[in-house]
Amino acid sequence: MRSMVIDYDAWRDGTPYDIAALSDVTEDERVQLTDELCAKRTLDWRDVEALRALATPKALARIGAAAEKQIDGAGIEAFFDDVAKGWTPEIEARFVEKLEHVQSMTGALDRLYEIAEAHPTPAVMEQLLRNARIHSDPTVRYSMGAFLLELTGHADTRYTFDANIRPHLLDLNSADYATYKAAVAWLLEKVANPQRNSGS
Q1: Most buried of 13, 90, 143, 168 (most Cβ within 10 A)?
Q2: From CA 199, how far away is CA 184, in angstroms rounded?
Q3: Closest by Cα among 109, 105, 101 to 77
């Protein structure tokens, strides 16, 4: 319970709850902790980890609800459980929808990219490109473009500051239409010509 009180330092450092302590709780305490976590309107990624460890039917159902409804980092963390059961057309459709609605500063982007890297299907690639072109969040446009370059072997990392790449990514948010269109064309050409096998 003490570890569930997250101060700024714990939040900044990504300190998880004391999951190991759950091995010593009684069944009554397990139910109490499950009820407390499940009562939260939205889950944090730490809550998802704790609910997985508690593993009661109610805890697992709450993770499923977060996977269905949340599009932040915790929602995507919960969604990993669904993906782990197998990549299906229904899972792909849900994933593409989460990609479409993602916002920066929610902790979701890196988790989404982990799934996309494992499943770079045509539908997933199409949504990544769509986000890079027209997403309402400028940070998402830049990030999606950078991730696509990493995914297709044109950059070693999505956090690249390469002087030959960064200006094009910045131009995905240019107010000048010709500059923007040139940046989109540049990105499309790169993605269409991967430098290494980017998967299916």
Answers
A1: 143
A2: 22
A3: 109
